[in-house]
Design a protein that fits this description.
single chain, 340 residues, alpha+beta, Nucleotidyltransferase, domain 5, 7-stranded mixed beta sheet, two-stranded parallel ribbon, 22% strand, ATP binding, Putative glycerol kinase, FGGY_C
Length: 340
Amino acid sequence: MVRQNTNLAEYIKRDTVFYGTISAYLVHYLTGHPSVDESIASRFTLMDLDLATWDDDLLALFNVPKQVLPELVPSVHHFGLIKSGNCEFPLRVVIGDQQTALLGQGGYKQNSIAMNFGTSGSIQINAGETPAHVHGLISSVLYSDDKKRYYLLEGTINACNSIFYHLEDELNIPHDKMLWHDRCAKTETNGVYIPTGGLAAPYWADNYDPISTGYESDSPNEIIRAAMESIGFLTYDIFKLAMSHLVNLPTQIFASGGGGRAPLLQFISNLTGISVIHGAMKDRTALGVHALLIKDYTGEWPELDLKGEHHFSPNMEQSIKTDKLKKWHNALQEAGITKS
């Protein structure tokens, strides 16, 4: 930006410009104080995750002067006062949406796990008070206050609902006729589908040959089922990698999001061997912020209503599970994503 905007370099010299996230801009706009919370800053490339400070080596690498960055503050903090007419009230919580989604599903304690499936997907794990450095997964700050800092371990999946949008075009199926969850509920397949567009966790691959093979019929439903199963396989691979960091394995996992449909959640339960609960509330992001505010005010986490709308328990034979995972991992090798 400095190379393309000659005035920007001058603003930096005068200390009249800040470089930050959208949240930092909003905090500055609302309160007059430029700051960014640690949960968002930890995804900003420039923060030292262990020390929760701007990293001098990274700043030098990207040629970012420290004075242009907003102040690093905890997620629960007195960010300033928001004025509206004759009223003013404090801004007390700023936090990333993925982090607060975990808190909104009651993920207060270490080893708590939640899943969210929308256009993309994420598997979130409360890693406790020590940063979790697991190759292939994302580490960031879950939330922080003036006393403690908790960390998040996360695996992301690029294509969840979006994989079916792609298949609508590929298979020439109108959007209102796709209804992938209905098709998958009545279809089984031995096929394997590795989507185009790249894989995120735990493989981080974008230069590979897409795979769509092994079908026993020419029905588009088999392809759609295999695409759905690819989401489950990636979820399993993320869990398997994350297990090395978990002290205790969970007995159940909460899932949310519009993509958390019954056939997918049942398949994930079958692969992981863990019960999956899908809540009636699709988006728990706001509830996570509400929980943080209550803890800030009372010192205690609130009891959230985590009653599930649907419960899924493992019911797949071990031999079938083993065969499916073998075909998936063989396909990853065939695509050049992994090595034998």
